[in-house]
Design goal:
alpha/beta, 279 residues
Length: 279
């Protein structure tokens, strides 16, 4: 049990960001990792030129890294946005334009998990209208994910850092997951369980794991306070990951933490080099 018993991947949108995007897969590989995940890398456009998609695929292939998680277009992230799919008007349109692009790219690199960030509440927009739009778009995304043999992830964020994001508890995200599955009949919508965000919301992490491990499709970690590497805060991450495994979760654990003031390559001291490659 413990960290060596997990399958870790590196989030290249928060680690190795001192490097250009196309150099990050090789940097992760040099640090000993064989699996990576990404937020949507082209924050300005949901439909980047095919040449840019091809270049990222080549960088992943050349490094020998497997992409195991990809966000759909989510607006300015990092930045003020927290997704686009529930935002009426242009942002919802951009999300829809991205669905097949993201799914096709994921299929091209063998990625089987697509994360759809819900989006912030918008001043002047009826929350019920936003939720109806969200369900509509999530159903489209779930069908696209199913077409390529992938799951659709719905994520809880934390209220202190994302005050306008409505899914700031595990039950809130689970409710959306259940609604999407009921609407599609596909059963491929899953919970993205991020231990950092849930801890920032003050949730009982062991209880969340016990209640929702069976509906969890992906896990992400960072320590709290500070969103740094395991061991820089007070979360019992090793124990919590063991609890997840005991509850039946056998999927990926994404390292989505800030490296601090040091280069990203030095932010993995807590994990023995011998167990970084995913078996």
């Amino acid at each position: 049990m413990g960290y060596p018993d997990q399958r870790f991947d590196v989030n290249l949108s928060i680690l190795f960001t001192e490097l250009p995007l196309l150099e990050r897969p090789a940097a992760a590989a040099a640090a000993g990792f064989t699996a990576v995940e990404l937020w949507w890398p082209w924050i300005e456009t949901p439909t980047p030129p095919q040449a840019e998609l091809d270049a990222l695929k080549k960088a992943l292939d050349d490094a020998g890294t497997q992409l195991v998680g990809l966000n759909f277009y989510a607006g300015q992230l990092p930045g003020p946005d927290r997704g686009a799919l529930s935002v009426p008007g242009e942002e919802s349109d951009r999300f829809r334009a991205n669905i097949e692009v993201a799914a096709d790219f994921a299929a091209s690199v063998g990625c089987t998990a697509l994360n759809a960030l819900y989006g912030n509440r918008v001043e002047g927009a009826d929350p019920q209208v936003q939720d109806a739009l969200a369900l509509e778009n999530l159903v489209l995304a779930a069908r696209a994910a199913d077409r390529i043999g992938a799951i659709l992830l719905v994520e809880t964020l934390n209220k202190p850092e994302s005050p306008l994001y409505p899914l700031v508890s595990a039950p809130a995200a689970i409710e959306v997951v259940d609604k999407v599955n009921a609407a599609t009949g596909l059963g491929n919508a899953k919970f993205l369980l991020d231990l950092y965000h849930l801890s920032m919301n003050g949730e009982d992490l062991s209880q969340v794991i016990k209640a929702y491990a069976a509906k969890t499709g992906h896990v992400q970690i960072a320590d709290n306070p500070g969103r740094g590497a395991p061991g820089t805060g007070t979360l019992p991450l090793e124990r919590l990951l063991d609890e997840l495994k005991d509850a039946g979760y056998a999927g990926w654990v994404g390292l989505e933490y800030k490296p601090g003031d040091r280069p990203s390559a030095e932010a993995f001291d807590w994990l023995p080099a011998s167990v970084r490659a995913a078996g």
